[in-house]
Amino acid sequence: MTAVLEVRDLRTEFFTAAGTVRAVNDVSFSLDEGEIIGLVGESGSGKSVTGFSLLGLIDAPGRITGGSVRLNGSELVGMSRGELRRRRGREIAMIFQDPIATLNPLLTIGQQMGLALSAHERLSPKATEDRCTEALERVGIPSARARLKSYPHEFSGGMRQRVAIAIALLHRPKVIVADEPTTALDVSIQAQIVTEMKMLAREFGVAMIWISHDLAVVSGIASRILVMYAGRIVETGTAAEVLRNPIHPYTRGLLDSMPHATRPGEMLRQIPGSMPSMLSLPPGCAFAPRCPRADAACTAVPELVQQGGRSWRCVHPLTQPDHEGATA
Amino acid sequence: MSGATDTYLTIDNVSKIFGPRLTMGERIVRGAMRKPPPPSLTAVSRVSLTLAKGQTLGLVGESGCGKSTLGRVIAGIYAPSSGAVTVDGQKVMEDGRKITTAVQTVFQDPFASLDPRMKVGDAVAEGPIAHGIVSRAESRAHVEKWFSRVGLDPTLAGRYPHQFSGGQRQRIAIARALAMNPKLLICDEPVASLDVSIQAQVINLFLELRRELNLTCVFISHDLSVVRHVSDRVAVMYLGRIVELGETRQVFTRPTHPYTAALLDSVPRIAAEGEVLMEVKPISGEIPSPLNPPPGCHFTPRCPRATAECSARIPPLRSIAPGQSAACHHAEAQMAEPERAEV
Ligand SMILES: Nc1ncnc2c1ncn2[C@@H]1O[C@H](COP(=O)(O)OP(=O)(O)O)[C@@H](O)[C@H]1O
Ligand SMILES: Nc1ncnc2c1ncn2[C@@H]1O[C@H](COP(=O)(O)OP(=O)(O)O)[C@@H](O)[C@H]1O
Ligand code: SF4
Ligand code: SF4
Ligand SMILES: [Mg+2]
Ligand SMILES: [Mg+2]
Hints:
The complex is a heterodimer. Chain A is of the alpha/beta class. In chain A, about 30% of the residues lie in helices and about 25% in strands. Chain A has helices spanning about 45-55, 80-85, 110-120, 125-140, 145, 155-170, 185-205, 215-220, 240-245, 250-255, and strands spanning about 5-15, 20-30, 35-40, 60-70, 75, 90-95, 175-180, 205-210, 225-230, 230-240, 305, 310. In chain A, the strands form two sheets. In chain A, strands 6-7-8-3-9-10-12-11 form an eight-stranded mixed sheet, with helices on both faces. In chain A, strands 2-1-4-5 form a four-stranded antiparallel sheet, with helices on one face. In chain A, a hairpin with a 2-residue loop joins strand 1 and strand 2. By secondary structure, chain B is an alpha/beta fold. Chain B contains twelve helices and 14 strands. In chain B, the strands form three sheets. Chain B has an eight-stranded mixed sheet with strand order 8-9-10-3-11-12-14-13, with helices on both faces. Chain B has a four-stranded antiparallel sheet with strand order 2-1-4-5, covered by helices on one side. In chain B, a hairpin with a 2-residue loop joins strand 11 and strand 12 (about 240-245). The longest helix of chain B is centred in the middle third of the chain and has 18 residues, at about 195-215. At the A-B interface, helix 7, helix 8, helix 9 and helix 10 of A face helix 7, helix 8 and helix 10 of B. One iron/sulfur cluster (SF4) binds near residues 291, 294 and 316 of chain A.
């Protein structure tokens, strides 16, 4: 497998009046062609900023302050705004939780899709309409050609998200970053979109980073999971391995605190405390104040350990995979 | 769990119909033009159920199905369009006014329900003072007591809502509701906007207080695993109607309504041992507009079991198994499906 996206030691910071927010801290991962990885973590852990950083969408007071993002072999960090804009949409695209924020309320869906197409391609009006119709049909929008004349508010939340997906797929990018794309939707619509996205990703050979706070949703779509906490990726592995044998105490804590992990009516095994402010991270491992395994060794930031297809940042891992990647 | 016979909450044939949402200008123009009034919306349709003391009823269904509206009718925030709610033999409302403090509510977004300019301690004290539950002099101790009970440092009572995290604000909202000494607590999506680890803390607080205070509860959530965890009984709603009602374990492992089954199939889940990753099976289509619901059974256009009878006749809520009822013409066929794993 070849990597379409390689992220190394990525660091994104916001320089605010209150201090420096280290939103993304030494983040490294790679994404293979056609692969779907899930990026999970609680709110404020740095998932969205990671996503924005990959598309070069960080504005002042924020800045990528270190590391590298290679897309199809070209380095995006330090690339000019114009060049980035040329690649966005065509090579890498993003889908957001609330498509209403990205769709223009004053333009019909057809007009917006036409604009998106003309950013990278020259097509006749007829060819544009055909391409847009086909794109909407593919994401399961009924009477697609007629719906091109509709405005965003005339669509349901689920249908709007489908339109956003259709737009993201217009230029057949290699990578899509989907930031909580189903969080605002009902479970029945979420199930439809997750199923369709899996199919489309396979059909188009598009690789995806699926960002969500919900481990269960992510495990339903991603083959690999990255767990993020306070700006750092603290654990990675295949979805099945991470769920079955979490290595990092935070991942274990998340799984244990879910209702299904305890008999109905009994007290849940909660993680004490809450995620620290990114303005004042504790020294060393950021999870230490909440961690049942914390001791003096945790006062230095744990190094990233990679072994058997998994990686973690913890000096007291719960289990350790052997070289084939199986865990005890 | 079952065997409790003393009915505490009775919802008797409650409906809530909302008139059209019109501005004053629209009303005047329509009146002048003699246009027929736009359709009204039936948010809750002929709901009847009872709940025994100390039990928790889970209310589930997708957004817009009427959970919050029913919750608000039970809490006496909305007057029902028809039917009545009684708690401990007492009517909650009379002549469109709430006449009891025995029912209190905790909402999803404590930020929206807390006045940003009022100190949180005052927000907790306000209701009990207004209703003579405590005097102004006693209120300080009352607030301190409830702050401690919900796990908040009482010295924080002088702060404002924005100085608290989402989880802490939800604790404040719980303290404010409980400071009224309610007998019935309505929780409307109390953990929906919280992170997983904070969700667990608030659910644990809820479980603890419910036991200590012997509260009867209505717990509204779109999250089936949360409802499974906290409720004794569960009511599944679809477009304003209760489509299934029963003992929680039964409903979740052996649903007798096709919508309940489909909803359970839509939930991505991690099995208890982390072993099996379930593939979700989506329901086809979207929820129809409540302004123009399909005739007969509202689920007909999306239901894999639908027959001609389904759109011809509204299926009544009827007993299918001991402790379990469903509003479906083909509930027996649904019940014959193999038992499923828990969410
Ligand atoms: N424009 C910004 N200015 C200052 N801080 C920001 C900005 N955007 C995000 N942050 C901070 O970066 C951190 C990570 O945020 P985010 O990536 O949005 O988290 P997540 O998506 O995991 O919920 C948070 O502490 C957030 O407050
Ligand atoms: N105050 C109101 N006026 C008019 N319609 C309303 C009002 N409140 C709710 N509705 C409508 O009633 C239906 C049920 O809403 P709600 O009870 O909030 O559902 P849920 O809590 O299950 O999401 C929806 O179609 C909603 O739009
Ligand atoms: S490094 Fe220490 S504090 Fe951090 S997760 Fe591991 S054991 Fe816990
Ligand atoms: S009554 Fe018919 S349409 Fe409605 S749920 Fe039952 S089988 Fe499906
Ligand atoms: Mg985010
Ligand atoms: Mg609601």
